[in-house]
Amino acid sequence: MSLNHVILGLLSREPMTGYQLKKMIQSTPFMYWSGNNNQIYKAFVELLDEGFVTKEVQHQEGSPSKNIYTITDDGMKEFKQWLLSVTDAPAFKKQLLIKLALADGLNRNDLENILESYTEVVKTQIILSEREIHQCCFAGQQSFGESLFIDLIRENVLSFYSSELEWIQRVRELISEIPNSKDNEAEAVSQNKKEKEESTMSYKIMEAQGKRYIYLTSDSPLILREQDAIDIISLCAEHSTNAVVLDGDSLSDDFVRLRTGLAGTILQKFENYNIKAAVTLKGGQHFPARFEEMLSEHSTGNTFRIFTGLDDAVSWLLA
Predict the structure, then answer these.
(1) pTM of the model
(2) Is domain 3-83 annotated with CATH 1.10.3210.10?
(3) According to the lineage, what is the superkingdom (predicted)?
(4) Architecture (CATH level 2) of domain 200-317
């Protein structure tokens, strides 16, 4: 299975640029390729060499030129041959299964925390998948057969996550029978109390330029743990936006000190879920040198940037 056939299939509908193809792949939940620039570029080189696509350079006054790709007759034959070929077996390689297989040394509280975190991830995926399938390029197809297929795809995707939640509940019931020592129970109570005290993110749903974004603030340090990223992603899914403003003066020490690895984990999740995050500062704030370097690396990216004013942050988010 390769990205090349997906590109041929999308081009069989109409000619497109590489950027358009990348956006379509990223916004369709049942297409499991990342569709990053390197993959797209490599795929087009191969498809051009094989004569499956052609490229037309379209010049634009005042803007960079665009490469428009069109599928050829040979490309159509290759695409149809792939459609009729033997389909890959379903994939069952999941990180949670590996964790459970290696988790025999953990106590009940640790196992429950693993399941709780995974449950939130699955619930977030349900919300995101429902929205993305509704908005994806295939959802607007008019013919009866094509409309029926997208409905069946939606049913397949959502039934997977629903079954996963049912399975998680069965695992929970099994874990509940594992005895916890008194020390572990006391530790669990203390940890739950600490997390409740720390999880004080508040948010406002804001609108600008006819679009919506989430403004996050906190009386205590903001983004203390990986779960906070899941909570933010869930908020975005719930309110149909991918734009977030974070109060930079509240960022936690663990987030700005890169040795903890928290910032990298959070930003990777934002990128995976196509979340744009802008941090606003009141001015005069200094971060550790390595964090400043990371900010410089992201200064031209499309996932995470820092601004000294809210207006500039919102303009970038909603552009």
Answers:
(1) 0.63
(2) no
(3) Bacteria
(4) 2-Layer Sandwich (3.30)
